[in-house]
Design a protein that fits this description.
- This protein is an alpha+beta fold.
- It contains nine helices and nine strands.
- Strands 6, 7, 8 and 9 form a four-stranded antiparallel sheet that branches. A three-stranded antiparallel sheet has the order 3-2-5, covered by helices on one side.
- Strand 7 (about 75-80) and strand 8 form a beta hairpin.
- Helix 3 (about 110-130) crosses helix 6 (about 165-180).
- The longest helix has about 70 residues, at about 200-270.
- The chain is rod-shaped, with a radius of gyration of 54 Å.
Amino acid sequence: MKNWKSISLLIVLGALLLVAFDGFYIVDETEQVIITQFGDPVGDAVTEPGMKFKIPFIQRAHYFDERYLEWDGDRNQVPTKDKKFIFVDTYARWQITDPLQFFKRLRDERGAQTRLDDILDGETRNAIASHDLVEVVRTSNRDPKSDATITEIVEDTLADISVGRDSIQTMIQQLANERATDLGLKVLDFRFKRINYVEDVRQTVYDRMISERNRIADKFRSEGEGEAARINGEKERELQTIESEAFRQAEEIRGEADARATAIYAEAYNQNNAARELYNFTRTMESYNKALDEQTSLILSTNSDFFKFLNDIQE
């Protein structure tokens, strides 16, 4: 009897432990819970954190994240309105706002991710196909931050936009939320992660960009060569002006000096006969010094003025 009582007590204690283990569940601050009974939800969602009780072995707790969740879209090839094929990579943030409705429609987060793939990828394709590439890439009609010359060259390539990337992203988010109203979730944010040309046309675009930059470089080079020619021309003209003015001033100074020397010579020459004789003598001696050396031979007549003082020395 004692053995049977001990065995019965152990069975009861084990059953109580199983009931306690399966009957209680804990709700974290980051979670929300739906209780189901035989697969059907029972009551409202449990969002208050703490320890809760459910009927063991009959009811089941389904946990859902209450935080912001991430959706990362596939890299899809999409045509724009102006027939340009591009790769679009997107991402979004979403949240479960109605756990009960979310469980009824999607069951779990994996089902939600699949449904969001259909909704967001579809709305992205529709939005891209409804707008030109420049609308998808640009956000505003801001002026390029460059010097005036470059602005004049590239201003024709910056077409004005009427919508812009930010508005297209907001539009996709709004349309996705309209389609997800009965899913118990909400798209909080949607963004284009990356936009690029497809491989077939990327090289063509690069070649066109290179050609455009070469055209700009040729224009700058041509303008630089013209400016250099203008500067060199001004330099030569200024140099000739300076040289001409310097030559004129030098001739004026030389003329004034010659006139002053002539006046001094004339004044000294006309003082008296002795002064004139001395002047003639010194000038003749200077000419001897310049004209004669050890290897010079002169043939002069005895009546030559140049021989006059030499003749006097011999006498």
